[in-house]
Design goal:
The protein has a single domain, classed as Up-down Bundle (de novo design (two linked rop proteins)). It is built from four helices and no strands.
Length: 127
């Protein structure tokens, strides 16, 4: 069982790293002026930090520390979803181009929520 858990941790680390790299690639491909630049600058910050939050959570000293770090990453993922929505809503980028990244953002949100809720349930913090 431990090997499976270690594999899942490694897989999520890789997935979050790839997510951050995709965000950076998007940033590099878009104009560096006007509203797009403001939005993508925010997106780079929020989109690259969930991986760091997760790495910190993996070294958490307690369940409360783990939850705090994971919820921080969750907030950043939710913020990334917002910036992606603004890029599409403002017609700066076609939705089709961003749909795979939006889907990945929402899948990562679901994973983070599930992990946090599992620990909270275990500690009876959530019914």
């Amino acid at each position: 069982m431990k090997d499976e858990t270690e594999e899942n941790v490694r897989d999520l680390r890789v997935r979050l790293r790839e997510y951050a790299l995709r965000i950076l690639k998007l940033y590099d491909s878009l104009p560096k002026y006007g509203a797009v630049h403001v939005i993508t600058s925010q997106l780079v910050r929020s989109g690259t930090s969930p991986g760091a939050h997760y790495r910190e959570a993996c070294r958490a000293k307690s369940d409360a520390d783990f939850i705090s770090k994971m919820e921080g990453g969750l907030q950043e993922l939710d913020e990334s979803d917002y910036w992606l929505d603004l890029l599409v809503g403002g017609r700066h980028v076609e939705e089709g181009r961003l749909q795979p990244l939006i889907t990945e953002t929402n899948e990562l949100i679901a994973i983070f929520v599930s992990m946090v809720n599992k620990v909270k349930r275990r500690k009876k913090l959530v019914k």
